[in-house]
Write a structure and sequence with these properties.
The complex is a heterodimer of chains A (183) and B (232).
Chain A lengths: L6 H9 L3 H23 L2 H17 L10 H24 L23 H13 L3 H12 L4 H8 L3 H22 L1
Chain B lengths: L2 H15 L5 H13 L1 H22 L7 H16 L10 H21 L10 H7 L2 H8 L3 H14 L3 H31 L1 H7 L1 H11 L3 H12 L1 H5 L1
Helix pairs in contact in B: 1-2, 1-3, 2-3, 5-8, 5-9, 5-12, 6-9, 9-10, 9-11, 10-11
The chains are: A mainly alpha (183), B mainly alpha (232).
């Protein structure tokens, strides 16, 4: 019976050109990579293309993975770099700046949130996330959806944990503001 | 209540409401919220989002054929292995400067030139100039040749319809070719390892964007989107 290989073994084998080993790594991480990209860019087709490109790029650069972080953290870094690059290109193409909503503090009125269908709600949240500045969007996706510790996000985005907490708080407030305005 | 303490507390509110704080921090939060009306109001404001709305958005579903996804990744790796790299006739850094100069000068020329649309024209020149084959050549021009290029375009007195073609192709150049050159330059400067981990694409895009000011970009946008320009 073939013994189960660890992720470390799979990375080492992939480095030596073992495509089957790399395919297993892709299968292990493809959904998470897809979703982190999808939540950043919003569009399914763009996310699919970008996620595939993340793995292609990872394979090309695998010999540069030092193993001082988790393999998935390294994948996240590639995914985030490519996603931010994609967003910048899209912004340059459209010449439309991402909307930046203010931070007005108001008492919360829950409103008819419970009346929203879940799909409508997801769309509303997706729209709200897309209004965030790139950095806040990245922090929000990694913290809320991926539930990564701040230390790991700090490694991915090269930002202090204090700055990340502030970014996360701002992101949440802006999403709240957007959702409340559209309920 | 100290503003500094309140700021720290508020930055932790999303995690608290999402159940991500440790027990000690959560206890500290509860104590603070009991004593501070302002932070309590902030918590009340964010609670429905964090505890009701966002959790529903966590459950995403996507119709993805993961077997096909893997096959496409492998196909991409195979294709990339034989992909033709841009043929640099000059040092990549020099080519980057040349290409950036072309991009910036053409953009400036577009801004300054009156868009009358009545000049003598040869639309084919623009299309020829910026077809895929020429883009490859463009990215490997030396500095002198690159500087000469906008002049030759100006002399052609192209109509706005051709300018639209040019502007589209400039975008293509910036996106596909210049970025590859910029990436190559960064790899040279930082070493490949450092460039990858530091965000090669992000840096190269930033470098390109910095070659034009925000105002330039906005102005170009308004020109490109103006009805006269697009329909002439």
């Amino acid at each position: 019976m073939k013994q189960e290989q660890s992720e470390e073994d799979l990375v080492a084998a992939s480095r030596n050109g073992d495509r089957a080993a790399f395919s297993r790594l892709v299968r292990m991480h493809q959904e998470r990579v897809y979703w982190v990209v999808r939540r950043m860019v919003g569009d399914h087709d763009d996310a699919l293309d970008l996620a595939q490109e993340v793995f292609i790029r990872a394979y090309e650069k695998l010999d540069r993975f030092r193993g001082d972080a988790r393999f998935f953290t390294w994948l996240y870094r590639i995914a985030m770099n490519m996603t931010l690059n994609h967003l910048r290109r899209a912004k340059l193409r459209s010449f439309l700046p991402l909307a930046d909503h203010g931070d007005a503090v108001e008492e919360h009125d829950p409103g008819p949130a419970e009346q929203l269908e879940s799909e409508q709600l997801r769309e509303l949240i997706t729209d709200a996330i897309e209004t965030l500045p790139e950095k806040q969007r990245a922090v929000f996706v990694l913290r809320y959806f991926e539930e990564l510790p701040y230390e790991e996000i700090s490694t991915i985005l090269h930002t202090s944990t204090g700055g990340l907490k502030a970014n996360y708080h701002h992101a949440v407030r802006k999403i709240e503001h957007h959702v409340k305005a559209h309920l | 209540m100290s503003k500094h303490i309140c700021n720290n507390i508020r930055q932790q509110l999303p995690d608290y409401l999402d159940g991500k704080l440790g027990e000690r921090e959560a206890e500290r939060m509860r104590t603070h919220l009991t004593d501070c009306a302002s932070c309590r109001a902030e918590a009340a404001r964010l609670r429905p989002l964090m505890q009701d709305l966002l959790p529903a958005a966590r459950e995403g579903s996507a119709d993805v054929d993961w077997g096909r996804f893997l096959a496409d990744v492998n196909e991409g790796i195979d294709a990339r292995g034989t992909r033709k790299k841009p043929a640099f006739g000059v040092h990549p850094g020099f080519a980057l400067v040349a290409a950036t100069v072309v991009f910036a000068l053409i953009a400036v020329w577009m801004l300054l030139r009156p868009f009358s649309g009545n000049n003598a024209s040869d639309p084919l020149l623009a299309e020829d100039l910026f077809d895929a084959r020429e883009i490859e050549t463009l990215t490997s021009l030396t500095g002198d040749a690159a500087t000469d290029l906008p002049g030759s375009v100006t002399d052609a007195s192209l109509p706005p319809s051709s300018l639209t073609v040019i502007s589209e192709e400039i975008t293509n150049v910036a996106d596909d070719e210049l970025l590859e050159i910029a990436d190559a330059q960064i790899v040279d400067a930082l070493g490949e390892d450092e460039a990858v981990t530091a965000g090669m694409d992000y840096l190269s895009d930033a470098q390109l964007l910095e070659s034009l000011s925000e105002d330039d970009v906005t102005l170009i946008a308004s020109l490109l989107e103006s009805e006269n320009f697009m329909t002439e």
